[in-house]
Structures are given as structure tokens and as C-alpha cells.
């Protein structure tokens, strides 16, 4: 069973704050290197919470939970890597630096691009090893999260309002799967274009 699904099953039926906690945990684990399909569960939580209050306010609560969870997860990894940074071989540091130099951008802005085409696994480790600015990194992580998931939330709300409930859920889930697929394809093509294995 997917860990994200287990968390959603455990907390998702506990009202508005259960869904917010669910999103927080799913995004936290995803930022800590445990894949949980946060896009899918963000939409499920948003649609599931439609009856608990104003959709926009609930969506903002979900976005805040997602941003905080990502910051905690990514910078927890950052702190671990920073603590042992002196033990990381120079070859690894050099390889990471060369990897980012091949990409479209090679500084903290890569964290923003990573939202569209995931190319940075272990984002916290990149921030630590490449000595990126923590405030800039935190800013780009937050902006990327708000823009991507805000856009997903607006589309979900549109489908929910203009289609019957069952149809809107199917359309929204297909949309999320398309977003994930496009992200993977973009990541592949950017890497291929830049000659990255």
C-alpha cells in the first residue's frame, strides 16, 4: 500500500483539520525522500474538504500546510547533510556542481524549475553541498509550491463547480496524472538535451 494512501485513510475522514494534517504529513514525507504523490493527495484533500467551509479559505490552509511541510522536510535533510558535509568526498561535490551546470539554471532558481521538471532529487542535499543561500532556497521552494499547487487547486475548483461530483473527481485525477507525466517527460528531455545520464 502507498504510504500517502495510508496517511489519507488514517486522517482524511477526520474533518477539515484531519485533511490539513494529512497534507502536511504527505508533503513532509515526500520532502524527506519518501515518494507519496503529493499532487494527487492535495487534490483529493481539496475536493474532500469542499463541504467543510469556503473552498478558497480551505485551499489556503492546505497550501500553508504544504509549504511548511516542504520547508521542514527539505531543510531537515539540509541540516543532516550540512553536519556531515566535511565527510562528503570532493568527487561527489564536483559531480553535483557539474550536474547543475548542465541544467537550464544552476543556482537556487533550480528549486523553482524543479516544480515543473523534477531534476533535483534530495533538494536539501543540493542546497547544503552546493552552499546555496538558505533564504533564497526557502523563498523559491515556497513560491514554487504556492504557484504549482495553487494552479492545481484552481483547476480542481473549476472542475468541481462545473461538472457533476463524480465527473469532476475523474477529470481532476486525470489532470493530476497528466501533470505528473508531463513533469517526468520534461525532466527527461531537459536532461537528454543537456547530455545528462
Describe the structure.
The relative contact order is 0.12. The chain has one domain. The mean pLDDT is 80. Helix 1 runs antiparallel to helix 2, helix 2 packs parallel to helix 4 and helix 4 crosses helix 7. It is built from 9 helices and no strands. The longest helix is centred in the middle third of the chain and has 29 residues. The chain is mainly alpha-helical and 197 residues long.
* Biggest sheet layout: none
| Residues in β-strands, percent | under 5%
Calculate the mean pLDDT score and round it: 80
Q: Count up the domains.
A: 1
> Can you write the helix and strand succession as a string?
HHHHHHHHH
What is the straight-line distance between the termini?
31 Å
Task: Specify the structural class.
Answer: mainly alpha
- Helix share, percent: over 70%
Shape: globular
Low-confidence stretches: none
Number of strands: 0
Summed up, the helix count is 9
C-alpha-based Rg, rounded: 18 Å
Topology of helices and strands:
Layout: H1 3-11, H2 15-31, H3 38-48, H4 55-83, H5 90-102, H6 110-113, H7 123-129, H8 134-162, H9 165-193
Helix pairs in contact: 1-2, 2-3, 2-4, 3-8, 3-9, 4-7, 4-8, 8-9
Put the structure in a nutshell.
By secondary structure, the chain is mainly alpha-helical.
What are the main properties of this structure?
single chain; 197 residues; globular
Amino acid at each position: 500500500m502507498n504510504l500517502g494512501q495510508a496517511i489519507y485513510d488514517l486522517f482524511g475522514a477526520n474533518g477539515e483539520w484531519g485533511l490539513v494534517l494529512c497534507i502536511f504529513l504527505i508533503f513532509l514525507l515526500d520532502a524527506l525522500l519518501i515518494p507519496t504523490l503529493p499532487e494527487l493527495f492535495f487534490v483529493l484533500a481539496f475536493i474532500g474538504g469542499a463541504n467543510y467551509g469556503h473552498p478558497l479559505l480551505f485551499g489556503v490552509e492546505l497550501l500553508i500546510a504544504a509549504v511548511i511541510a516542504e520547508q521542514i522536510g527539505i531543510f531537515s535533510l539540509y541540516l543532516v547533510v550540512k553536519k556531515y558535509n566535511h565527510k562528503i568526498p570532493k568527487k561527489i561535490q564536483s559531480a553535483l556542481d557539474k550536474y547543475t551546470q548542465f541544467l537550464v539554471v544552476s543556482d537556487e532558481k533550480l528549486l523553482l524549475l524543479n516544480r515543473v521538471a523534477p531534476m533535483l532529487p534530495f533538494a536539501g542535499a543540493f542546497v547544503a553541498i552546493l552552499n546555496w543561500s538558505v533564504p533564497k532556497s526557502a523563498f523559491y521552494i515556497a513560491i514554487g509550491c504556492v504557484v504549482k499547487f495553487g494552479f492545481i487547486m484552481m483547476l480542481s475548483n473549476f472542475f468541481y463547480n462545473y461538472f457533476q461530483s463524480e465527473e469532476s473527481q475523474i477529470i481532476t485525477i486525470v489532470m493530476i496524472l497528466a501533470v505528473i507525466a508531463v513533469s517526468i517527460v520534461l525532466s527527461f528531455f531537459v536532461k537528454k538535451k543537456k547530455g545528462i545520464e
